[in-house]
Design goal:
Chain lengths: 489, 350, 484
């Protein structure tokens, strides 16, 4: 049986793509390596009775029309509106509402641009390179620094530092580098999901299944079969094949091209580009089960604990952390973001107890002096707890259980290269029209298309992934549908 | 002009009213709050002040007879502590009110509604020698809505099962309170002087369960998401004695009329009518009281309409012709595309 | 104990008897229930005045439906008229009386001393009024008819009697003559639409003459006797001494009545000749008529009329020359408007309007020779005065006697007996829109199968029996429709 499309990876993008394609009447198969679907949209019981979303607490927002068309709310995905974030320094604190405005409008425009590109059928051969270049919304950010951008939003230095941390949302970058203003595009939070992000994953899965997609879990895609230069199907770990006219990969860029193909089969320009695609500084997550909710810091109201808490953010600290990461060292004082997730969603902890997540930035995948050992893990955990102790003395005694998730763990659990959840650094040469690559000679790479005919890239390395959840998948689905309809495949 | 009153919980709701948005209902000043609070009711629970809802006490030897004639549903089978949701109509079948009747004793009833109608009730009750008094100011009432409601009440020490449309009086660590289940969630009634104590007790009990205060906007959204029709927001009740509009048929409220029961205005209330359905808009622009068209033909009209933050789109309740009311029917409302869906909009939290 | 009846009629006055007779003639099994010991209502000779008995209601007929007279064969059953066309005489303290009869020249002669213009205008006024009235008869005499001159009807329905008369006449005397009729039904002459009262009165016909006022020979009791005979001949079962306590309802429709004695009588329809208030608020179960309707009915009429009957040793001087007349006494129209306001406030007005008739002057059967009866209607009076009627009645008597004495010197000395009937509290208030609405709206009630057939359903309260006739027809059609 020949499918119209085979989708590798049943994460948010994969499921959204499956639901969109199946909703148009196409035959869709989804293969997922893990035993259940959802990818980053997961809820994990890391200690008996205590649950949290292991990788991130909030994903970038899902565009409204995609949220409606997949009917996610009625399928169980209830997302809280973004709450204010709190920044704490010794002797000073600041409460910040999510800054909207220009960045939000740019995000809408970029999503619309990519979806529009996707819906226009592919141009091949000579026509591809002759297509006129249309400027991207947000391009002016590629030459500006994040510090400048934040200076426009506020005059107060403490608030600026808070804004930096809020935009980065647990990640790190060098805010003084030209092009770091593009981080603003990735700085939107879509809200915590009731019951953890796993519910969002289930809602997406339900949308896909009810639309008619076939989802197979526990099966890894090992390579992509081609015939006469065109994609013909996906080879699976158990030796079987899925024949499909189009393949959407929701794996990151490196894993898509370097593990699903033999390098020699691909054009050299592509392989060079993929190799040169730089990862972003990784994050680690410490999930803590506490015997009770900690007291709000002096001078804050209880509702301030419902949002992310940034500990002593500053531009200098970010810069230092980025440089440390580049050297491959583990920072002594990694930038930390706390979230008392059970204060928003009481179902994540037993009654009377609390669940706390700690996001540490600038954590290397492999430290320069060797892989992560138990000692190194314990040291990192101690460092993280020490940071939390500054805010809440004595918190260590209240910890009933914990789980530490490092970049190699994320690589193992999600199949993402380097454990880099962002799928590649949000730098000027890796964003907008250049994410993941610009048009290569003879190939139209707009709207999630790749130089390999019949292969489409959604997933974290695609242009829309840092901006919006599910949008990359929907874009790939529309590209597939447009190309199939125009019989380009 | 009469000065507005403050509800017994005003001090706490004012504190929680971060947006400083206020509105007036039934002569009370109320905190409007942020519409986003409605989503919090899907996570832990929210507490909202509903002391402004009009309540009338009906008592007298012939109270049962009067109430039976007044309401479109027969209250005879109610035991003390039980309630039902009902309409009352004027002589020609125009809907004057929609609310909940609770039987408090053999000859004593309580009528609760979002819009008051004391004049009509008092004049009509006089025909039976029955007394009707406005008791809205006698109590403060809070609504607790959300999946953690039961746990919060248990943590606060308010134990016990409560049937749907049931009511129970309790003695709660020194305070006389009443619990009821007449609408969304649980209602907690207390004396006005005890109001702030009650609020603080609930806040303490609810802290581990993410209990948040919610304003009136969130309350309206939660009602709408559950498909609960409220007079005032969803329709303008008839205010004279003989106008047949709005009829229960035109509002899709046939479920609240028992055709075999003898009630005031019965002649105009019989017969098939429109069906109450939900409408989902493909935008965040609400469209209340708007005609719905299918292929250019009018098939119904929307009642109240708001933006639901959980669904991230505008929703509405609508009264539609039965033929067009199947879920998924595509319609337009003043040019905006929308479609029907079954009520409630969101599945009940477990 | 129940009987299988088609129809029940409540009230044995002329209206009830007429309705019952018509129902029986249509083939229904009918029972009529009268609370008192005898039928007749206000037409029965129930008031004792020395050795005489007189009726408590009006003693002239001006609106009796000729079709009722014909179809119930009342002439054959003994209804004769002692006077067929009473003159309308306005008594003035400041001059000669105004004699307004069918003779145009005589009328003009009597008006001329007050105003030449009015004398000339009067004939045209009366002719136009009568012409309009004839056209509107369709609306006022038939069920289901529409107004003949809707624009004119609408205009008059908005015009008050005072404005109407001011436009027609310039002299105070002429306007005052019409003042008494302008206050029919407890209306103020200044109220909008009261000019229709004249039109309605002019639309009536007695003994073949339009707008005539007649007096039955033998008094109103003769009318009752004729109607009673018609009813019995048709097969109506008349029960006296049977006051109705409550109506029986089954669902939202009437099913019969319960007497004060506890007897239940089942019937498929019930016609009530009592007032709307009494029928729907007292007899019907609480709330059965509809809450808004009940509230609207809870206000009774506030202004009414009282009746005085005097027995005299001699005819009053004003009746000496032209005894066959209705004498109208009112000083000024303005005064009557003010009087109405006072009556509404619950006080005895300073100025009063009277209609006086001396029936013995043309019907010798009413009293032994040498005794004369003077029957006087007084308007406008409060129905529920602040002081209460027991205290107010003597003052009213004094005022009325003073007024009569002014026009008939020596009257007081001739009085043998006097009786006063104060205004009744149970009357429905007159609403001008009733004069423009159809019969069905007035006859039908919110309770299925219950119809009003008495004065309450007349456009203007008067003894016409027209309502009874039409109500009977509507009731029969209802029964036949229900049977289908």
């Amino acid at each position: 049986m020949r499918y119209d499309a085979c989708i590798i990876g049943a994460g948010a993008d994969g499921l959204a793509a499956a639901a969109t394609l199946a909703g148009r009447g196409l035959k869709v198969a989804v293969v997922e390596r893990d035993s259940h679907a959802g990818g980053r949209c997961a809820t994990r019981e890391f200690h008996p009775g205590f649950r949290a979303s292991p990788y991130v607490d909030e994903l970038p927002p899902i565009p409204a029309d995609i949220f409606w068309s997949l009917d996610l709310a009625r399928r169980g995905a209830l997302l809280a509106p973004a709450s204010k974030s709190l920044a704490l320094w010794p002797g000073r604190q600041n409460l910040l509402s999510a800054p909207a405005g220009r960045a939000e409008a740019l995000r809408h425009a970029i999503v619309a641009r990519v979806l529009g590109d996707a819906a226009a059928p592919a141009k091949r051969g000579l026509f591809a390179s002759r297509a006129p270049y249309a400027p991207w919304p947000g391009e002016e950010l590629s030459t500006r620094t994040l510090l400048e951008a934040v200076e426009e939003l506020s005059a107060d230095s403490a608030e600026r530092a808070h804004l930096l941390a809020a935009v980065l949302d647990g990640r790190v970058c060098n805010p003084a580098l030209a092009g770091s203003a593009l981080q603003l595009l990735g700085g939107a939070r879509g809200g915590m999901a009731a019951g953890g992000l796993g519910r969002l994953g289930e809602a997406l899965r339900t949308a896909a299944v009810e639309a008619g997609a076939e989802i197979t879990c526990g099966l890894e895609a090992t390579d992509i079969k081609r015939k006469a230069g065109r994609v013909a199907g996906v080879g699976l770990a158990d030796g079987s094949d899925i024949a499909a006219r189009a393949v959407i990969s929701t794996l990151d860029l490196k894993r898509t091209f370097l593990s699903l193909f033999a390098w020699s089969e691909l054009p050299k320009a592509l392989v060079d580009r993929v190799g040169a695609f730089r990862p972003a500084p990784g994050t680690a997550r410490l999930l803590l089960a506490l015997d009770g909710p900690p007291e709000p810091p002096a001078g804050t109201e209880a509702c301030a604990l419902r949002g992310p808490i940034h500990l002593a953010p500053s531009a200098a600290a970010l810069d230092e952390a980025t440089r440390t990461w580049r050297r491959g060292a583990v920072p002594d004082r990694p930038p930390a973001m706390l979230r008392l997730v059970s204060a928003v969603d009481p179902s994540l902890a037993p009654p009377g107890a609390a669940t706390l997540t700690v996001t540490l930035g600038a954590i290397p995948h492999t430290p320069f002096d060797g892989a992560w050992t138990h000692e190194k893990r314990d040291r990192l955990r101690a460092t993280a707890l020490a940071t939390v102790e500054v805010l809440w003395p004595g918190i260590v005694k209240r910890v009933l259980g914990w789980e530490l998730i490092l970049p190699p763990d994320m690589e193992h659990m999600l199949g993402i290269s380097g454990g880099d959840l962002t799928g590649g650094e949000l730098a000027a040469d890796q964003m907008l029209g250049l994410r993941p690559f610009a048009d290569l000679p003879g190939a139209d790479c707009r709207g999630s298309r790749t130089p390999v005919e019949g292969l489409y890239l959604a997933g974290p390395s695609s242009a829309l992934a840092p901006l919006a959840t599910c949008a990359a998948g929907v874009a790939a689905a529309r590209a597939v549908a447009a190309d199939l309809a125009a019989r380009r495949l | 002009m009469n000065a507005l009153s403050a509800t017994p919980f005003h001090a706490r709701t004012a504190e929680a009213n971060k947006l400083n948005a206020w509105e007036t209902r039934n002569g009370f000043t109320l905190a409007s709050g942020d519409p986003g609070e409605a989503v919090a009711a899907r996570f832990g629970a929210v507490v909202a002040d509903i002391s402004w809802r009009w309540r009338a006490s009906i008592s007298g030897a012939r109270a049962g007879e009067f109430v039976s004639r007044l309401l479109t549903r027969d209250p005879a089978r109610l035991q003390p502590g039980e309630g039902l949701r009902t309409l009352w109509l004027n002589d020609s079948g125009g809907v004057r009110g929609l609310g909940t009747l609770a039987r408090m004793g053999r000859d004593a009833f309580l009528l609760i509604s979002a819009v008051d109608d004391l004049g009509w009730l008092a004049d009509s009750a006089a025909l039976y020698g029955v007394e009707v008094r406005d008791v809205t100011h006698n109590e403060g009432v809070l609504a607790l809505i959300g999946p953690a409601t039961g746990k919060i009440l248990a943590a606060a020490g308010l134990e016990g099962e409560l049937q749907p449309f049931g009511l129970r009086k309790l003695f709660w660590r020194g305070l006389d309170v009443t619990l009821s289940r007449f609408g969304d969630g649980i209602e907690l009634w207390c004396a006005p002087d005890d109001a702030l104590i009650v609020w603080d007790r609930l806040a303490t009990a609810g802290r581990p369960f993410a209990l948040c205060p919610a304003g009136q906007r969130a309350l309206d959204i939660l009602d709408l998401e559950r498909g609960i029709v409220q007079p005032g927001r969803d329709f303008t009740p008839a205010r004279d004695g003989f106008s047949p509009k709005p009829s229960q048929q035109s509002l899709g409220l046939g479920a609240l009329v028992e055709p075999d029961h003898m009630f005031n205005g019965r002649a105009g209330a019989l017969g098939p009518g429109k069906v109450l359905t939900g409408i989902l808009f493909d935008s965040e622009t609400p469209a209340p009281q708007t005609v719905l068209l299918r292929g250019g033909v009018a098939v119904g009209h929307t009642l109240g309409s708001l933006v639901s933050p959980a669904l991230r789109r505008a929703i509405a309740l609508a009264a539609m012709d039965a033929a067009a009311a199947a879920p998924g029917t595509a319609l337009t409302a003043s040019g905006a595309p929308c479609r029907t869906c079954a009520l409630p909009f969101l599945p009940e939290a477990d | 104990m129940s009987e299988a009846l088609d129809a029940l009629v409540i009230g044995g006055g002329p209206h009830g008897l007429t309705a019952a007779a018509y129902l029986a003639q249509a083939g229904m099994r009918v029972a009529l229930l009268e609370a008192g010991e005898a039928t007749g209502g206000t037409c029965a000779n129930a008031l004792a005045l020395g050795d005489l008995t007189v009726p408590a209601g009006a003693q002239t007929l001006y609106a009796l439906d000729p079709r009722v007279v014909k179809e119930l064969k009342l002439i054959r059953r003994g209804l004769k008229f002692a006077a067929r066309d009473l003159l309308q005489i306005g008594l003035r303290a400041d001059g000669k009386p105004l004699v307004l009869g069918r003779d145009a020249r005589a009328a003009a002669r009597s008006i001329a001393p007050y105003s030449q213009r009015d004398a000339a205008q009067f004939v045209d006024f009366r002719r136009e009024l009568f012409a309009f009235a004839r056209v509107q008869r369709a609306l006022w005499w038939e069920d289901g008819a529409s107004p003949g001159l809707p624009d004119e009807l609408r205009r008059l329905g908005a015009t008050g009697a005072a404005a109407y008369l001011d436009a027609a006449f310039e002299s105070e005397a002429m306007k005052a003559v019409f003042a008494f009729d302008a206050m029919a039904g407890g209306m103020s002459p200044a109220a909008a639409g009261t000019s229709l009262l004249f039109a309605w009165r002019a639309a009536q016909e007695m003994c073949g003459l339009q707008g005539a006022v007649a007096v039955p020979r033998g008094g109103m009791a003769a009318l009752v006797a004729a109607l009673s005979g018609a009813a019995q001949a048709a097969g109506v079962a008349i029960r006296t001494g049977a006051p109705v306590a409550r109506l029986l309802l089954s669902g939202d429709a009437v099913a019969g009545a319960i007497l004060a004695s506890g007897d239940e009588i089942a019937a498929r329809i019930v016609l009530s000749s009592l007032s709307r208030r009494e029928t729907l608020l007292t007899l019907a179960p609480a709330g059965a008529a509809g809450f808004a309707a009940a509230k609207r009915l809870s206000r009774g009429a506030e202004v009414g009329e009282a009746k005085f009957v005097l027995t005299l040793k001699a005819v009053p001087s004003f009746a000496a020359l032209q005894p066959a007349a209705r004498f109208l006494i009112a000083e000024r129209l303005e005064g009557c408007i003010a009087a109405h306001a006072e009556a509404r406030a619950g006080r005895l007005p300073a100025e009063l309007a009277l209609e006086a008739v001396v029936p013995t002057a043309f019907d010798s059967l009413l009293a032994p020779p040498g005794t004369d009866i003077l029957s006087v209607l007084v308007r406008p009076l409060p129905v529920a005065p602040m002081e209460g009627w027991p205290k107010l009645a003597p003052r009213l008597s004094e005022a009325v006697l003073t007024l009569l004495e002014r026009h008939a010197p020596g009257l007081r000395a001739n009085i043998v007996n006097l009786i006063c009937v104060t205004p009744k509290p149970l009357r429905d208030p007159l609403e001008i829109p009733q004069l423009r609405a159809g019969w069905r709206a007035r006859i039908a009630t919110p309770i299925g199968g219950l119809f009003l057939c008495g004065e309450a359903a007349e456009p203007v309260p008067a003894l016409s029996c027209r309502t009874a006739r039409i109500a009977a027809a509507i009731a029969v059609a209802h029964l036949k429709g229900a049977a289908r």
